[in-house]
Amino acid sequence: MRLPADPIHAQAASEPYMSSPSTTVPTKPPLGCAAVMMQVLRGELRERELPFTHQREAIAQILFESTRHLSADDVAAALRQRGEHAGKATVYRTLALLVELGLATEHDFDEGFKRYETQVGAAQHDHMICTECGQVSTFTHPELDRIVAEAAAESGFEAITRQVKIFGTCSETASCRAAQQAYRDAGPTT
User: Fold this and answer.
1) Model pTM?
2) How far apart are CA 148 and CA 162, in angstroms?
3) What are the tens digits of pLDDT across the range 32-59?
4) CA–CA distances in Å: residue 125 to residues 64, 103, 144, 165
5) Which distant-in-sequence residues (6+ apart) come within 8 Å of 40 by Cβ?
6) What CATH number does the domain located at 27-120 have?
7) What CATH superfamily classification does 124-190 receive?
8) 20, 23, 97, 162: which is deepest, by most CB within 10 A?
């Protein structure tokens, strides 16, 4: 899977939303969200008597300001671009801490590494992953929510959360469009 050269800023301003037929889910954190998340992080660290270091702040700031699902390597690259330095172990430990505190969510998109996003509220969303360019888009659809709830109820199962990952190709780049055409030309596979 090929990833954009600048994975942090590769998502164009014209693509901040992924639409389903009836629902739009913003992938960019709400205005002021990063500052609010940083205050929550400070409070959580103080409560646990953990230090609020400059490196933790810089790593958290990158994640909280991002519109993308970032890997630890993406975070480290963004730190370098800002003239900051943190070892890879510090980046991994800080991302794990943010997940533990409920301020970030960890995702496995079958790339051989994890990606992270800011956890704002309890909104459930799912992901579409382009296997050609690596773009990850979020979506939600009320019919999917209904089907999951219905399937759980029929089985007497109490669902806590779910993860839907759709792998395919987007239409953002020429190579993605070419891959889509190749799949259409090949016809259905069984």
Assistant:
1) 0.57
2) 8
3) 677 778 888 998 899 899 999 999 999 9
4) 18, 16, 10, 10
5) 103
6) 1.10.10.10
7) Ferric-uptake regulator, C-terminal dimerisarion domain (3.30.1490.190)
8) 97
